[in-house]
């Protein structure tokens, strides 16, 4: 029987022992998951090592089989294969062990949920005694004050009436004090009884938890030990095989397999020469008639090369058909003599000097060679169609296959559009370093200004990201076709799009009323240790193109965040930012590809750091993520945040903070930026379930009509309120399209901005909502006169933002006491939002 340590060591003046023991129980789930991760990583290492050893065995088997040493390679190959098998067996055993640990994790979660229900009365007793203790202390202070006041009046000779009044007050204070003493005694008795039972229950849970983990570790160590023993046996066998492979056996094996015979050469005797026979056989050898025009008469022109090799060499490595055919029949082929030498034709000396190029000769009277006339076919120009189609396929893959997977290149930079007003629990000057939307460097698709003219919508994304909690990518969801009555424009024209390849830059003469503010000299707020889970094929969270250019400021309620007291409910702010990425293809809604991602950020006032550091056990910050059933993936910041499956359900996910890690992070942030009033923490990322074109706030369809002299363009758009949780206006709507072919004149409705330097046309539309004309539906029409047509249909890019709502509808609900939500900000914006014909 183990000593009841929990029963003896978790009381204390503030009665916080229950809270510490409960969260210690929850930490057990973290330990189990981390042990699972360790075993999984070891299994991965063993599997990778086994594959490397298998590859090494194949290498040994492919080494040279020539020489005396060749049989030894078979010994190496066999031994290495056996070692690889040992490591692969260990990897399989560890995978089976992981399955057992996963079962224990499920059982552990159920046990913790049951325990929480069982200890609920203890929690009530703890809260009761804490409340009564505070009331008792106040009543005691009031009693002492009234008693002293009555005694003072007596000593000072006050009137009897005043003394009587003081006596009445003192009597009431005495009765209240005694009443609280009695209540405290009852609460104390109940608290001690239930706390003793609960403390022992928590210790029993921890004992069983540790025993279970030790059993898992014992199995792990046995598997590793068995593998080491097997590897040792394999190595001993290898040593024996090498010892048995003697020098004599190797030499004998080579002699038997490569021997050329045991018969030695016999004797040869001298024979007299028969002169008559020798003279008759000494006739000149007739050479094969072969010659190259203009070549010097070498004394030995025998050739062993085949005509097939010669034919291959004439192409000089060029592809078939690159050179034209050579007319051998009509060429001036020289005659050859009996020995294959060329018979020199008679030519004019001057012509020979003017028209020839030099070749080596060992005779001064040799003439220059004659030349063949060779016709070379030019290379057919490449119109780039296949390249453009490849780019379109890559674009589809980029948008359609985005997943929130881990990456390894460090924390990803986010664009300036990150919820500027969320951290503003009170108004503050720009550049103070505590804005939630402080710029963290442009992403690959982020604009350096607010104008789409500086965006290249098809430029490749930059790699980025650090480490999120690992998540299994969810398979692509089927895209549902539009229902009857949706936007169904006429069929697209037969012309094929051509994607621009040049990088688009800004235009100086075009005004940018929403350009980002100048950078402050103050250092930016520290970023949370959150991994940005977007791979090189993913879409940047461009809440984008200029979402940060219209900052919003919120005002906090309650006390100033700089002067918070420990007994106050601590204010925090939350921000949800979502990015919608879409690709529309012609007028077919089933070909629309959509991906929606989001970020959740909390903002803490500066004064909260002092409250956390002065309290060894601050109240644990817990919350629920509501409407989580609409999400495909949730990636929490595992350094700070932990999920609580026991409190989660089908439509919400419960999370709680590691308060020690949060305090440490906020303290470090304060040291890096002591002048900030607020500190922002990225706590999780998520991916929203999408339903094709139904999930896009703005439906698009593009049509091109291209002739040598003109290009007609039409863009149909429709505001889609059904895609939003709470429909709001789309603001800062801009449409950009490149047009080539030498545009000389533009006619557009509505009016547009044309850049002749960049060959791009930009439309800035009014805000779109259900209250707009035609309920937010409309068309853009333009006619371009060309000097060098026809144009090639290109990809159209769109940007917009929406404040006050999200596409997913996710929300935050605080759990427990000690904190209040002072501000909640929501917005979404475009990432890569494009359309092709």
From TrEMBL:
PROSITE patterns: F_BAR, MHD. Gene3D superfamilies: Arfaptin homology (AH) domain/BAR domain (1.20.1270.60), Mu homology domain, subdomain B (2.60.40.1170). Keywords: Coated pit, Coiled coil, Endocytosis, Membrane, Phosphoprotein. GO terms for biological process: clathrin coat assembly; clathrin-dependent endocytosis; convergent extension involved in axis elongation; synaptic vesicle endocytosis. It is found in: Membrane, Clathrin-coated pit. It is a peripheral membrane protein. Residues 529-548 have a biased composition (Low complexity). SUPFAM superfamilies: BAR/IMD domain-like (SSF103657), Second domain of Mu2 adaptin subunit (ap50) of ap2 adaptor (SSF49447). Its main location: membrane. Residues 4-250 form the F-BAR domain. One of its GO terms (cellular component) is clathrin-coated pit. It holds the Pfam family muHD. CDD domains: F-BAR_FCHO2. Residues 406-420, 441-450, 549-560 have a biased composition (Polar residues). Residues 281-326, 351-370, 406-560 are annotated as: Disordered. InterPro entries: AH/BAR_dom_sf (IPR027267), AP2_Mu_C_sf (IPR036168), F_BAR_dom (IPR031160), FCH_dom (IPR001060), FCHo2_F-BAR (IPR030122), GMIP/FCHO2-like_FCH (IPR054713), MHD (IPR028565), Muniscin_C (IPR018808). Residues 569-837 form the MHD domain. Residues 87-208 form a coiled coil. Belongs to the FCHO family. This is F-BAR domain only protein 2.
